[in-house]
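User: Second chain of the day. Same drill as before.
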Amino acid sequence: MDAVVAPEGFALDPGFVSLAALPPGTTARVVGVGSIASALTALERRLLEFGFVNGEQVEILAEARPGRDPFVVRVGHTTLALRRREAQSVWVEIQRSGANAPPLEARSSASERVEIQR
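Assistant: Same format as last time:
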C-alpha cells in the first residue's frame, strides 16, 4: 500500500501502488505518473512518452538479481528496462483476476481513503 500526499496529511489508497514495488509476473494498469503536488519532472515526461499513460496495461517481465535492478517491463507493445528509482513515480492498479473485481471508479471514491495525520 502506498501513500500519496494530501493537504490534511497522507491518504492511503489500497488500490494503487508504485510500479517499482511490483514483482515479476504482475500485470497492472497505469493510473498516473508523478504527483498532484508538483509539476512533472523531465523523467516523468519521458515515462509518459514511453507509453506510461492512464489506462495502459503494464507487465513486469523480469528483474536482475540480487539487487532487483534494473527490471524489465512491458507497457503496451513496448518492452523497457527501468531502474526501480525511475519507476517510483508511475502509479498503477494491480489487475485482479475474475469478474468479481469492481471497476476502478467504484473503488476509488473518497470515502475509501484512509487519512493519517502528521
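Residues 1-12, 99-118 have pLDDT under 50 and may be disordered.

User: Great, on to the next one.
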